[in-house]
Amino acid sequence: MKGAGDNTTRPVVLADVQIKRVRTASPVVGHIVSNELCLYGKSASFVKHTVIDVSGTPLAGAFRAGQSFGVIPPGVDEHGKPHKVRLYSLACPSWGEDGKGNVISTTTKRLIDEFIPQTVNERSRAHHLFLGVCSNYMCDLLPGDEIRLCGPVGSRFQLPVDPSVHDYLFLATGTGIAPFRGMLTELLCGKAGAVPSQIHLVMGAAYTTDLLYHDLFQKLTAVHPNFNYHTAISREPRPQGQEGDEGETRHTGRRGLYVHQLVEQRLDEFSALIASPRTLIYVCGLAGMQWDVFRMLARHGLSQDYFIRTGALEKLAPEDWTDADIRRGARPTDRCLVEVY
Ligand code: NAP
């Protein structure tokens, strides 16, 4: 596994993007084009590829892959106030789903959970069914339905202006795959043809059936030898020969793999890519993945090009870093682009 071209470090040049073209206070109306499940198999989750026509609004053609947009759900909250805006990552390339920037998309997961009290007054509702307001509103939408939108937002989580001078390691968990669907389409399916860069996507999901856009990524791997798709499944036994030891399984309660574990297990393949000055690492999804990836890179002496250590991180060994230490003390460099929650 190595870089596509020479090994010279190139500055990471990002485009100037428009943000907040449409303000939350005066949203525009888009129309649902389609809203179909994008899971690989029959899953306990509901995740949809939501496609929205924004033609005729200031959002049309005014976004870049990796940015997010706002959705304002109808109705009021428990205090009688209008619902606040929720942000969703674009899942389409910068030219949209239609090639003209008139149709955008995102990846929407129904939040179905149990209520966790945040205050003493809320204790009586503990363990009651909790339904995410906007995610369920979005997943219910049908073709032709209206949706109130604003944005775009985000200026850093994007591809470089000249993508061919870099190689890429994309790390995703769950719906954090959304921006990578857009970026990969842009890198591999543009009018000018595919970039020659080495591209690796590691996608983390609980079960194989929870993988998102799996068919698309498999097709892209089959057609583009420079694109490599890896899946880290956390709740299924690891493939034979890659099992963790009993202690690890007992400690984590998991038989499967997290994203950072897959990379670590195959470091003989990944280390050349990570050490190459051409490589950019993008992380999108759960914040826990970022902390684990940062610890793993530091353990193997591969972190210095991706984040600067300050505070406790300078003094302690990576295995002793707490999540809070990393949140406070790790400053991602230009070569590490992070969008986690
Ligand atoms: P999910 O289904 O809860 O989790 C996906 C996978 O990540 C599961 O296999 C889970 O394993 C695993 N995981 C949990 N902790 C991990 C860790 N520390 N390291 C690596 N893997 C870990 O995911 P989701 O419900 O789709 O949520 C994705 C998150 O991404 C949400 O918080 C969402 O807000 C965020 N997101 C961000 C953006 C953005 O643009 N920034 C876009 C979309 C989504 P187990 O459950 O088996 O432990």
Describe it for me?
The protein is of the alpha/beta class and 341 residues long. The protein folds into two domains: 28-153, Elongation Factor Tu (Ef-tu), domain 3; 163-340, Rossmann fold (3-Layer(aba) Sandwich). It has nine helices and 15 strands. The strands form four sheets. It has a six-stranded antiparallel beta sheet with strand order 4-3-8-1-2-5, covered by helices on one side. The protein has a five-stranded parallel beta sheet with strand order 11-10-9-12-15, sandwiched between helices. The chain has a two-stranded antiparallel sheet with strand order 6-7. α3 (214-223) links the parallel β10 and β11. α5 (259-265) runs parallel beside α7. The radius of gyration is 21 Å and the shape is globular. The two termini are 30 Å apart. 40% of the residues are buried. The mean pLDDT is 94. Residues 68, 89, 109, 173-176, 178-179, 204-206, 234-235, 258-259, 284-286, 288-289, 292, 339, 341 line the site of NADP nicotinamide-adenine-dinucleotide phosphate.
Give the low-pLDDT segments: none
Envelope shape:
globular
Cα radius of gyration in angstroms? 21 Å
User: How would you sum up the major sheet?
Assistant: 6 strands, antiparallel
Which class best fits the helix and strand makeup?
Answer: alpha/beta
- CATH H level, superfamily name of the largest domain: Nucleotide-binding domain of ferredoxin-NADP reductase (FNR) module
What are the distinct ligands in this entry? Answer: NADP nicotinamide-adenine-dinucleotide phosphate
Q: Number of helix segments?
A: 9
User: What percent strand?
Assistant: 15-25%
Count of β-strands: 15
H and E string: EEEEEEEHEEHEHEHHHEHEHHEE
Q: Using the coordinates above, name the CATH class of the largest domain.
A: Alpha Beta
> Please, what is the average pLDDT?
94
Helix content: 10-25%
What CATH calls the topology of the largest domain is: Rossmann fold
Kindly report how far apart the N and C termini lie. 30 Å
**CATH architecture name of the largest domain:** 3-Layer(aba) Sandwich
